[in-house]
UniProtKB/TrEMBL annotation:
This is Phosphatidic acid phosphatase type 2/haloperoxidase domain-containing protein. It holds the Pfam family PAP2. Residues 105-219 form the Phosphatidic acid phosphatase type 2/haloperoxidase domain. Keywords: Membrane, Transmembrane, Transmembrane helix. InterPro entries: PAP2/HPO, PAP2/HPO_sf. It comes from the Bacteria. The keyword DNA damage does not apply. The chain crosses the membrane at residues 27-45, 76-98, 105-128, 148-166, 173-192, 204-222. Signal peptide: none annotated.
Length: 240
């Protein structure tokens, strides 16, 4: 079964109980392992690697090269990954996908990705407790620590699931355009958070890791089966 088209290849309706069990086993349990990896990386950076002082050079260079125009542009990019924006947009996407497909088990995927990512990020940040870069910050610092980046993790998890959902768009041009935009947004958010002095490079990179893994876990949370009938195989082929 194709990972990307798994929900098109099997549209059978799960029960709430079976979906909940799948969610616990296939997304939440692996997320604990992801959390351990992220905390381990953060502990390594904070301890034996002495907080990676070489990263300060990049932050200082970006701060020195700031311009009024890029200050405004990166403020917009950064806000695309902000908590409130992600939550509101995610709820709208869930409602839209549910309305269009009548498949609640598919519609909740972005919500699962964002929620699991947030749980990993908040708890890992509390344990690691890394300070933010020692440059002028263009945004108000949230109460969480610098590692990993929550903006980058949330935007990666959310927009990557949107990229996967966009593969169901019938029009090829619109499908590829939507996919490209969804993949570009987390890159812009990551750059903005570095430019605006809110994160070190490794904070951003591990934020991407968190988002990618959580998007994958969310997309794979529900068991799907290969189509067995000719009609099911035809539908699966059309989805590609």
């Amino acid at each position: 079964m194709s990972f990307v088209h798994r929900y098109a290849q099997d549209t059978s309706r799960p029960t709430l109980r079976s979906a909940g069990g799948d969610l616990a086993r296939r997304a939440l349990a692996p997320a604990v392992g992801l959390w351990a990896v992220i905390v381990g990386l953060g502990t390594l950076i904070r301890g034996p690697l002495d907080d990676l002082p070489t990263e300060d050079t990049l932050n200082a260079e970006l701060a020195a090269d700031r311009t009024p125009t890029m200050d405004q542009v990166t403020a917009l990019w950064s806000n695309v990954g902000a908590t409130l924006f992600i939550i509101v947009t995610c709820l709208l996407v869930i409602a839209l996908v549910w309305w269009r497909t009548k498949e609640w088990w598919l519609a909740v995927v972005p919500g699962i990705a964002v929620s699991v990512q947030a749980a990993v990020f908040v708890t890992a940040a509390a344990v690691v407790g890394r300070e933010r870069p020692s440059v002028e910050k263009l945004d108000e610092a949230p109460p969480t620590s610098s590692f990993p980046s929550g903006h980058v993790g949330a935007s990666t998890a959310f927009y990557l699931t949107l990229a996967l959902l966009s593969r169901r768009i019938a029009n090829p041009t619109l499908r590829w355009l939507a996919t490209a935009v969804c993949l570009l947004v987390p890159v812009l958010v990551a750059y903005a958070r570095l430019y605006r002095g809110m994160h070190h490079l490794t904070d951003v990179l591990v934020g991407v890791l968190n988002g990618v893994v959580c998007a994958g876990l969310a997309w794979h949370y529900l068991r799907r089966r290969e189509p067995r009938t000719s009609r099911g195989r035809a539908r699966a082929a059309a989805a590609r």
